[in-house]
Amino acid sequence: MSLESVVVMGGGVAGFATARELRARGHTGRLAIIDPEGLPYDRPPLSKQYLMGTQDAARLAFEPAEWFAAHGIEVVHGTAAALDPAAGRVTLEDGTTTDAGAVVLAPGAAARRLDIPGADHPGVLELRTRADADRLRPHLRPGARIVVVGGGLIGAEAASAALALGATVDLVEPVDPPLVPVVGPDLARRLHAMHAERGIRVHGSVPVAITPPEAASPSLSTPSDGVRPAGGASPGVVPGPRRVLLADGTALEADAVLVGIGIVPRTALAEAAGLAVEDGILVDAAGRTSHPRVFAVGDAARTRLADGTLLRRAEHWEAALNSGTTAAAALLGQAPPAHGAPWFWSDRHGVHVEGVGRMAGAGTHVVRVEGGVPVAAFLVDDGGRLTGCAAVDGGLTVRAARRIIDRGIPVDPAQLVDPSVPLKKLAR
Ligand SMILES: Cc1cc2nc3c(=O)[nH]c(=O)nc-3n(C[C@H](O)[C@H](O)[C@H](O)COP(=O)(O)OP(=O)(O)OC[C@H]3O[C@@H](n4cnc5c(N)ncnc54)[C@H](O)[C@@H]3O)c2cc1C
């Protein structure tokens, strides 16, 4: 495989990290990032500071345009439409082609859509891109009524931002509490309860239809007031108020509806190119797809280990970044960088949540309580090893937990629950 040139498809954190690492590790050949959104930018602020108006668009960019010029990284504004792995040829939607010795697929994931009548109305929003945040932001103001469908990480962050900006918020989430596999049952309960404590109305149900405000019947399956056909907003259609009908009979009036019910990896181009795909573009631990010339990284990729074990797709920022640096090393034939146990963070209602490792599956849940509330949760396996930790406003605890997990240090559950024992002490 020639490394005279590398084309990276997608300029999210995974694609950007791949390109930056290739240069840092000495790749001097042609390097291009193709992305319809142009200059690579970061997504986590879209449901936090950017949505709240405390961070501007320029600060979303990983680096300014001059940095890309200085590092000889072309940023191609375009959408890759097809890939010929054998030729290393990427065809863009506008028909232009670009050839490369190696191609890195980093297209991320799309928001999962609600499959109910009315869900394709332009007043029904999602939150994956800067443009999505720009559509949502004007609705988040005093007096506005926002319905958020989905109480996972992004739904919860957006609901919290909407509330902080003065909107009236209804949160629809059938699972009580959500996020148990991510933070364990105790912290999940605490975090979910915060919504109601802060004044969000939480509905343990599911939406069955989204209609115009005046239409109360869930049987109204084809609302006629400007609903766009599937596949994109019609020009001139103004998103208007909606009524969200729930399975339990509740009708929620909304100025905007935000749907945050998970993501679907973008695999269509890889599949059409004949690459192995299974809920993600299948890659080995180094990011190699089933074709030696093509790598895949980030939310779109799913790792199959050498022994055949299929890992769950990671959907967090640091995992995407790490997959990019790993792929860059592999492309250059260099030793892979070492990464710690998987880590994520989330912010809502003024608290900072972090988690590391695995909080689901076999093991015993151990909880640290301070002032009557759970502040940290741990999962300990049968061999007395820590497999995961999550904490609210406990960054130092999570950092120490990561060291304990990475080093396989045995833990004593009695010390984990004891708030007077700094976790750092157990990490030595
Ligand atoms: C609103 C929001 C908040 C988040 N908050 C957190 C958080 O607090 N903590 C955390 O750990 N994680 C968070 N995440 C998750 C994290 O941001 C993602 O895991 C990460 O962005 C994945 O990186 P990626 O590069 O794989 O994909 P993305 O960042 O989604 O980037 C993919 C890029 O590929 C481009 N693309 C798609 N198709 C094509 C094509 N055909 N041709 C060319 N380019 C294409 C897209 O335009 C996009 O720029 C958040 C995500 C979102 C959306």
Question: What do you see in this structure?
Answer:
The chain is of the alpha/beta class and 428 residues long. It has 3 domains: 5-110 and 264-331, 3-Layer(bba) Sandwich (FAD/NAD(P)-binding domain), CATH 3.50.50.60; 113-259, FAD/NAD(P)-binding domain (3-Layer(bba) Sandwich); 350-426, 2-Layer Sandwich (Enolase-like, domain 1). It has 12 helices and 25 strands. A 5-stranded parallel sheet has the order 3-2-1-7-19. A 5-stranded parallel sheet has the order 9-16-10-11-12. A 5-stranded antiparallel sheet has the order 21-22-25-24-23, with helices on both faces. Helix 1 (13-24) runs parallel beside helix 9 (317-331). Bound molecules: flavin-adenine dinucleotide. Flavin-adenine dinucleotide is lined by residues 9-15, 34-37, 43-44, 46-47, 79-80, 106-108, 127-128, 154, 266, 269, 298-300, 315-318, 320, 344-346.
